[in-house]
Amino acid sequence: MNLDERSADVLQLLQQSPSLKMDELQERTGLSRRQLQYSIGKVNDWLLHHGYQPIGYERQAGYFLTDRIREEDLPEKLTRRSYTFSEVDREKMFGLMILLGEEPLSVFHFQSIALVSRNTVLKDLQRLKRNMQERKLQVQYSKKDGYSFKGSSRAKRQLVEEWVPDILHSASRELMIRCLWPNREEQIAAIQQQLEQTERQLGMTFADERLQELTYLMLCTDQLIGKGDVLEENRSWGELTASNEYKLVERMTSSHAFRSKWNRTECLYATLHLLGMNRTRDISPLQEDDEIRRLMTEVTDEFERWACVSLHDRESFYRQLYIHFRPAYYRMLYGIHVVNTMAARIRKVYPDLYQLTRKALQPLETVLGHPVPESEAAYFTVHFGGWLRRQGTLLDDRKRAVVVCANGIGMSNILIYTLRELFPDILFLDALSVRDAAECILEYDMVFSTVHLRTDKTLFVVPPILELQDKQKLRQQVMNELYGYTVEKMDTSSLMKIIAQYAVISNEEELEKALQQHIYAHAHKTNKHSLEGAEKPVLEELITEQNIVFQTRASDWKEAIRLASRPLLEMGTIEPRYIEAMIRSIEENGPYVVITPGVAIPHARPDQGVRSLSMSFMRLDEAVEFGPGKPVRLVIILAAADRSSHLKALVQLTQLLGEPANIEDILNSTDKSVVLNYIQQYSKEEQQQ
User: Which ranges carry the PRD domain (predicted)?
Assistant: First the structure.
């Protein structure tokens, strides 16, 4: 009996920890409670099959292994791997190994971790050396000491500050953590427990991602101190010794969770990061933080003045803004850089709001003595924009809409904000995930979605970020759907000629731009909207690493379909009844889904349980018979939301599978990167044709 990858991960966590509570398992695995309960059931089946007691549970302790698993009984997933890291991943891995390693490192060590050739490792190291030059760091090698970094301790810490979040957000996160920090699981758990205790003592809740990042940042700091690589004293940090955060850091770093002795400077370094942590809750009294209160008031006054608006319920706004303002203030005051991947897009899509926010931040810049970084200004833009949005819409008889976004809450907020600006005559009720949309009880007339969705309402498929041409096209579609008629696009150049006959134009370029904006703002109806006109996703947008499954075997073709469908079920893009509908269809019509030797594409009707367009890809080590003389090793589930949105991806898939050499290569591969490479290749080729 074999364990699937996810269940093997759960078993490994329990093997490495005395006990874990459900919330700890959720945090460590990124799985939902329902997914974990399913995996625990699978692990129990595996344990009983191999003669072990099932997983134990106690309310206070959580889940634990009753018996210790013998090494020879561990699943292959837990003892070896066949994944190949990307160049980018390898550079960060090698860099952190050099920074944190406790023993001299040679090329052999990097080969054994990355499973690549000696020449590949040497090329990676040369690239790392070049990239470090602009940071004034040198990568050196000696037979005695192996590879090492030479340069300032602060520059090395900045590398850790950048690389750790990248690794934690990487698709190969779990594997990279196991390679970089083997046998550190207990220490990692202990550090996180200390940080969670600090949360409670400070009366705040850190954002989940930031809490995990700080856990590993403090682990790395502990390792660097242990190597003797300590920070130089920074006198500007000294005033922080009076803060509650510093006192808690001193106490925390003296606990058993840390193996090295932290000096005052290192504790201050950790305090800076603690103060600059993004949070979702902060009950510390705003009234007692006079400096922050004064700055918030001045910045808000400036925003109202520049934007010619009045923010309602200022006290509530201050309480919400304070949660972001305080950590942002400390980050900017002490030069802690944060990466905001949406900053450029926010500035491009909301140039006016961004510019007004930058003007409003001048009182803060005066105190800091330097400009507010673009990444931080973008965060403030979202806060002011969100509050303006909150105070503007009343329930009335307008058409009602919901927004469905698969890109997370941040993108959902940006999208609904844009749509409300674009369509003030539509009442936008909420931004939902695909799963929430399927269970939504709100009454609405239309759906704006970033994915092709199965719905009986009017559907508009939109990109997460709308640029000017996207807005124009969408406005045409929506207004024609609402009112059923079109206004031809007005020629501004002709208007300019008419105006020039009767007036002197001092700035032709600005006048034409103003006319275009005015006409666009007041244009109500244009082209006929149809779903067929919406952009159809390509193959690589539907089959991602998350949706690819490598499975040893399936007991029969029915189980193969169930196993291949599991990623879509977990994402919420299909309902369980869709799986049964695919099985019934083959039972009634025969193995028609076997489209080429060794390959099956099971599917059913959209109305039989599809929530949104999606696909999954499963490769079996052992073929399963879908019918007499129909052995199959590749099972590709297609969940179409309508009659056409999947066609572009299906054409690309057909082209990929039309080459027997491609299929053979995939069947012989040992990791998912081969499948992903083919999918990306055929997605791009089709786009270029």
Answer: 287-394
Do β-strands 458-461 and 548-551 pair in parallel, antiparallel, or remain unpaired? unpaired
pLDDT tens-digit profile of 3-62? 666 777 788 788 777 788 888 888 777 778 888 888 888 888 888 888 888 898 888 888
Q: Identify whether the C-beta of residue 547 lies closer than 8 Å to the C-beta of residue 567.
A: yes
Token code pair at residue 430: 């909420």
Rounded-to-integer distance, Cα 512 and Cα 502, Å: 16
Mean pLDDT throughout 228-241? 88
**Strand 548-551 vs strand 614-625: parallel, antiparallel, or unpaired?**
parallel
Taking 70 as the threshold, does the pLDDT of residue 526 lie above it?
no
Q: Which helix (H) or strand (E) holds 639?
A: strand 631-639
Q: What residues pair up with 432 in beta bridges, in sequence order?
A: 404
DSSP annotation of 20: B
Say if CB 97 and CB 110 are below 8 A apart: yes
CA distance 461 to 542: 15
Helix axes 374-390, 314-334, angle to 10 degrees: 170
Q: ∠338-420-310 over CA atoms, to 5°?
A: 75
Q: Report the DSSP pairing between strands 631-639 and 598-600.
A: parallel
Query: For the segment 239-285, what is each residue's pLDDT rounded down to a tens digit?
Result: 889 888 999 999 999 999 999 999 999 999 999 988 887 666 655 55
**Region at 660 (left for phi over 0; alpha for psi -120 to 50; beta for the rest):** alpha
Cβ pair 321, 381 in contact under 8 A = no
Those residues whose C-beta lies under 8 Å from the C-beta of residue 330, and which sit 6 or more positions away, are 272, 275, 276, 336
Helix then strand then coil, % of the chain, to nearest 5: 55, 10, 30
* Predicted confidence (pLDDT) per residue in 170-184, tens digit: 767 788 888 899 888
Tokens of 126: 């040369």
Helix (H) or strand (E) holding 667: helix 660-668
Is 612:453 a contact under the CB 8 Å cutoff? Answer: yes
DSSP 610: B
Tell me the pTM.
0.47
Take residue 569 and report the two structure tokens written for it: 């079920």
Catalytic annotation on 529?
no
d(CA 10, CA 38): 11
Closest CA to 597 of 554, 630, 559, 550: 630
The dihedrals phi and psi of 621, each to the nearest 5 degrees, come to -70, -35
- Identify the sign of the CA torsion 436, 438, 439, 444: positive
Q: Is the pLDDT of residue 83 over 70?
A: no
645: which DSSP letter? T
Partnered with residue 460 across adjacent β-strands are 448
Q: What are the C-alpha distances in Å from 62 to residues 69, 211, 287? A: 19, 22, 40
Dig out the tokens for 542 from the structure. Answer: 């539907």
- What is the CB neighbour count within 10 angstroms for residue 509? 8
The strand ranges marked E within 175-321 are 204-206, 279-282
Alpha-carbon separation of residue 379 from 150, 210, 315, 347, 354 (angstroms):
35, 15, 20, 11, 10
Catalytic residue among 109, 273, 603, 646: 603
Query: Comparing 334-343, 495-504, 597-606, which segment has the lowest mean pLDDT?
Result: 334-343
Quote the CA–CA distance of 53 and 48 in Å, as a whole number: 6
Give the span between the Cα atoms of 99 and 460, in whole angstroms. Answer: 50
